[in-house]
Amino acid sequence: MTPPRLPFIWLARLAVAGVFLGACLAKISDPESFALAVHRYRLLPGFAVNGVAIVLPWIELTCGLAVLAGPRRVRAAAALLLLGMLIVFTGAISLNLLRGIEASCGCFTTRADAAVSDGWNLLRNASLIWLTLAIWRDALRPSPLPPAV
């Protein structure tokens, strides 16, 4: 018999939702500064930077809320979106580290003088990827309760 997964999954949902809900606040309140943070990565063409800076924080907000309080199918979709974003973010940070570009990740603050991305950002993202995968897998499992009539 396997031990219950509920406490772990609930804590994972709280952690992932908390990170993304916390991360979106500064970006939503200051999209211009977040656009500069996105631009500092030097990965997107100029015409795409503003669109990403405006849309991305709202996706983070929506997915964070869905992972925290959404029904199973919505939670699974939100976890999959967050997983994709985490993979892209991790790739972007890795690429900048390899290229020697010293820029803040823009994750929790839009300030230009924020700490430069480093290996800790990669470790944090790897942990978030692991937790998000667990949330996604759990949301895809059949419900232990019979469907209501």
Share in helix: over 70%
- The number of helical runs is 5
Shape: elongated
Q: What is the H/E order?
A: HHHHH
Computed CA radius of gyration, to the nearest angstrom: 17 Å
Strand content: under 5%
Helical/strand content category: mainly alpha
- Unreliable stretches (pLDDT < 50, length at least 5) are none
Oligomer state equals single chain
Biggest sheet details = none
Mean pLDDT: 90
Number of domains: 1
User: What is the number of beta strands?
Assistant: 0
**How far do the termini sit from each other?**
30 Å
Give the secondary structure arrangement, pairings included.
Blueprint: H1 6-29, H2 31-40, H3 46-69, H4 72-99, H5 119-140
